[in-house]
Amino acid sequence: MTSLSSQVCGYILPQSPCTRLIAEIPNLEKTLQIVGGKNSTWHGNSNSNGGFEDYQEESDWVDLDADLYYWTKPLRPVQWYPGHIAKTEKELKEQLKLMDVVIEVRDARIPLSTTHPQMDAWLGNRKRILVLNREDMISTADRNAWATYFAKQGTKVLFSNGQLGMGTMKLSRLAKAMAAGVNVKRRAKGLLPRAVRAGIVGYPNVGKSSLINRLLKRRMCPAAPRPGVTRVLKWVRFGKDLEFLDSPGIIPMRISDQAAAIKLAICDDIGEKSYDVTDVAAILVQMLAKIPTVGTSALRNRYKIDVDGNCGKIFVQKLALHLFNGDAHQASFRILSDFRKGKFGWISLERPPSTDQGADGAAR
């Protein structure tokens, strides 16, 4: 039994509740190593349930980020680069030259992980508005932390909810205001004024098309709650003074930061075929257990099963037996779906780095 527990959880758990649980679960995979992190135990309240320890301090986000790095190391790399993205990237870089202002949309739950590493180079000195979409999916504390962080970076940031339209009118006014100088220069040259051109860019499924549809108050751009729906560049007009360029989601050809890739998978910002649902759900369980505002109690209350043992994989297997006749895939999808629907509360999976790092998170 000691050998089996070592293979499952990454280190020996002699005669613990976790090892007893492993013996009770049939057909448990013996190759996945998720647990351990940089330390062999969780930090925090030593009285919490059977190994998962609730983090008590905000400073423990640093430890969570470090542990996430170790949890992802043994897993198959998450990579997703559909064929249309390469073509889109080339076309987009050409269109960006025509933009008066660029609106970069990120997922408010993971603002750093939805930052394209080449975006700054593409935009150069072009005016930019940063939109953190899905503000309804994070807490007020998370929102305030990110607002303060980007304000210190000198980045114009706007929070929005593309589904309900919150922030969209403010976005149109801000885009016009930032690009007002365009027509001043045109008049000085004796040219007629034209509509402000605003390009909307960002990762797949962060809500770019939904924002445009809400602005126009009609469905002009295809939108669905999955990545890869928009596949071509499309110009749409908003009144007489503003034009938007809706673009497909762009993502790096190779994702070097696998901790970020797992967060993309958790938040459904990357194609499902690129990752193992069970692996991702297991890591999400471990993350939720350590996030101060969630902890083990939220998992226990939601599924009515004890959170015992250090391994998120074990929790997935327990849930599979409890609700899905042992089907770990269904159990994993339920956990991910519940997180995406806010069943554990609205939370961010990232907190701002120290202010001496750039807003693009490159120093992470």
Automatic annotation (TrEMBL):
Keyword tRNA processing set for record: no
Keyword annotations: GTP-binding, Nucleotide-binding
Pfam family, one: MMR_HSR1
Alphabetized GO MF terms: GTP binding; GTPase activity
G domain ranges (all copies): 198-254
Record flagged with keyword Nucleotide-binding: yes
GO cellular component, one term: mitochondrion
One biological process term in Gene Ontology: mitochondrial translation
Superkingdom field: Eukaryota
Name by which UniProt lists this protein: G domain-containing protein
Organism: Acer yangbiense
Lineage of the organism: Eukaryota, Viridiplantae, Streptophyta, Embryophyta, Tracheophyta
